[in-house]
Amino acid sequence: MENKKVLLGMSGGVDSSVSALLLKEKGYEVIGTTLELFAGSSCCNINTYIDAKNVCNSIGIPHFTYDYKNEFKKHVIDDFINCYANCKTPNPCIECNRHLKFEHLYKRAKTLHCDVIVTGHYAKVVQDEQGYHLLKGVDETKDQSYVLYSLTEEQLAYTCFPLGDYTKTEIRKIAEEQGFFNAHKHDSQDICFIPDGDYMAFIEKTTGKKSEPGD
Predict the structure, then answer these.
(1) Which of 37-51, 143-157, 160-174, 180-194 shows the lowest per-residue confidence on average (mean pLDDT)?
(2) Angstrom distances, CA of residue 213 to CA of 135, 148, 196, 206, 210
(3) Number of C-alpha atoms within 13 angstroms, CB side, residue 76?
(4) What is the pLDDT of residue 41?
(5) Could you give the residue ranges of the DSSP H alpha helices within the chain?
(6) HEC-encoded secondary structure of 152-171
(7) Pairing relation of β-strands 116-118 and 159-160?
(8) Which residues pair with 67 in a beta bridge?
(9) Cβ 18 vs Cβ 171: under 8 Å
(10) 114 an active-site residue?
(11) Given 44, 56, 114, 192, the catalytic residue
């Protein structure tokens, strides 16, 4: 990664926190940012903003929070509802990565004069004579390349995944040694805007329409 100034998407969790630390130790100018996507979600609330900001303060890098709730509703929530309405199975994490983290986040990076965006995904970007390629991370139990499959080669060219060569156990150990309070923070693996897992109730509440019983 030739460019020295990077914009790091942060959720307040251990993965993005250690990503910030690793990049700073390698000499990069790191700017942390948290996107406001959905009020009251499991990974988008005041606690996550505070956690991310506290980590940034502890290692001496700036942190900014930006409101992308409208974009999240358009590209993720509306798609989620429309898919179910048309008998399809959505994957909101993929749509969030496609439209928010690797489209709008990059646009934000350009306004901050950053040329590279970084996330705490467990995946790798490799360049060879044929171009840029998305690879699995070394930790097969945490590999997240499958939710990044939609990234274009152009997007991969300005993306960095610092955790691709680490296992989750190693990342938590680094966080412990650094004294990060979130070293053992629970992984968020649910749908962030439906933390209770009741999809039907969410869809009915959002659309104001009752669903017909199925088989």
Answers:
(1) 37-51
(2) 42, 34, 20, 18, 9
(3) 23
(4) 67
(5) 14-25, 46-59, 69-72, 78-85, 92-96, 105-111, 153-157, 168-178, 199-207
(6) CHHHHHCEECHHHHCCHHHH
(7) parallel
(8) 36
(9) yes
(10) no
(11) 192
Active site residue 56: no
Kind and range of the H or E run holding 215: none
pLDDT at 1 over 70: no
Please pick, among 43, 96, 114, 160, the residue that the annotation labels catalytic: 96
What are the structure tokens assigned to 38, written together? 């959905």
The residue type found at 38 is F
Q: Which residue shows structure tokens 């649910």?
A: 190
CB within 8 Å of 83: residues ≥ 6 apart: 89, 90
Rounded CA gap, 18 and 22, in Å? Answer: 6
| Cβ 105 vs Cβ 35: under 8 Å | yes
DSSP element (H, E) containing 95: helix 92-96
**Euclidean distance between CA atoms 39 and 158, whole angstroms:** 29
Structure tokens at 42: 């499991």
pLDDT band with cut points at 50, 70 and 90 for residue 89: very high
Which two tokens mark 18?
Answer: 């250690």
Beta carbons within 8 Å of 71's beta carbon, 6+ residues apart: 99, 100, 104
With beta carbons less than 8 A apart as the criterion, state whether 36 and 77 touch. Answer: no
Q: How many residues does the chain have?
A: 215
Q: What's this model's pTM, rounded to 2 decimal places?
A: 0.89
